[in-house]
Every structure is written in structure tokens, then in C-alpha cells.
Amino acid sequence: MSTPVSQEEKQAALARLNRFSQMADNAIGIPFTRFRIGLEPIIGLVPVLGDLAGLLMSCYVLLEAHRAGASPRVKQQMVRNMLIDFFGGLVPVIGDVFDFAWKANVRNTQLLREHLETELNVQQKPRFHWMQFLVIVGTLAVFTALVAVFAL
């Protein structure tokens, strides 16, 4: 049984993942383009071992998502992105280009962000304030009774 995760802990996890995915997938800008690369696709240039190292790096995002209370559906989507990144990167030459473009960590961080934002919005539904309602109804009842008594 998992312990509930506070809103602050979820926001801290997102901040950590934003930094991590930036470093892993978007750390270095390619001059004269809008394209960015990170450490993971550079490590992925080493055949097989680099792709395995990238997969292990991506597991950090999955671990943080689990700690933040992500739903099983979100975690499945993350694993799918990680496997696409891993197996796509294994293809010689084309896989290296694929690694530069797929950016599984950024995708997974975005998945978690969307999930947590939806979850936080659902959890923060306005509650009905019964005490205020009863005070207002009581005040109106007393006021109506006073008006009725003085009107006679």
C-alpha cells in the first residue's frame, strides 16, 4: 500500500524531472538551428551499451512518476516511450538519428505533468461549506420571522 503524496512533493518531483529531462534530452543547442540534443543521444552513439545506458537513465523518470503516484496507465505509456527509444536506437545509423529526435524523457515528463495537473485539479474541487450555508439560512429565517412579527 503506497502512502499519499502531497502536492508539494509532486511539484518537487516535476521540478527534478524538468531538470533531468532538460539535461538528458535538450542540454545542448545545435548552432543556427532550433534543434537541441542532450546527453542521452550522445551516449547512445555507443552501439548497444549506449542505448542500454539511455534506457537506464530513462528509468529514473519512471521511478519519479511512481513515487509521485502516477496511474498505471501513465506508467505504461512511459514504458512504451522508453522501449520505443531503446529499440529505435538499436538500429544502426538510423537509430542514432532517431535518438536525437524521439526524446523519451521529455515526453515522459510531459505525460507526468499532464497527469498530475489533471489530478490536482480534480482534488481541488471546491467543497460545499455547510456551516456558511446554515448560518445564511438561519439568518434569513430569523429575519423573515422578525419581518412577519412586526408586519402584524
**Form type:** rod-shaped
Beta-strand content:
under 5%
Major sheet attributes = 2 strands, antiparallel
N-to-C terminal Cα separation, in Å? Answer: 66 Å
As a percent range, the share of helical residues equals over 70%
Number of helices: 7
SSE order: HEEHHHHHH
Cα radius of gyration in angstroms: 26 Å
Given as residue ranges, the uncertain stretches (5+ residues, pLDDT < 50) are: none
Classification by helices and strands: mainly alpha
**Average pLDDT number:** 85
How many β-strands, per DSSP?
2
Numbering strands along the chain, what is their spatial order in the largest sheet? 1-2
Fill in the keyword field for this structure.
single chain, 152 residues, mainly alpha, two-stranded antiparallel sheet, rod-shaped
Detailed description of the structure:
The protein starts with 6 loop residues before the first helix and ends with a helix. 74% of the residues lie in helices and 3% in strands. A two-stranded antiparallel ribbon has the order 1-2. A hairpin with a 6-residue loop joins β1 and β2. The radius of gyration is 26 Å and the shape is rod-shaped. The chain has seven helices and two strands, in the order αββαααααα. The mean pLDDT is 85. It is mostly helical. α3 runs antiparallel to α4 (72-90) and α4 packs antiparallel against α5 (94-102).
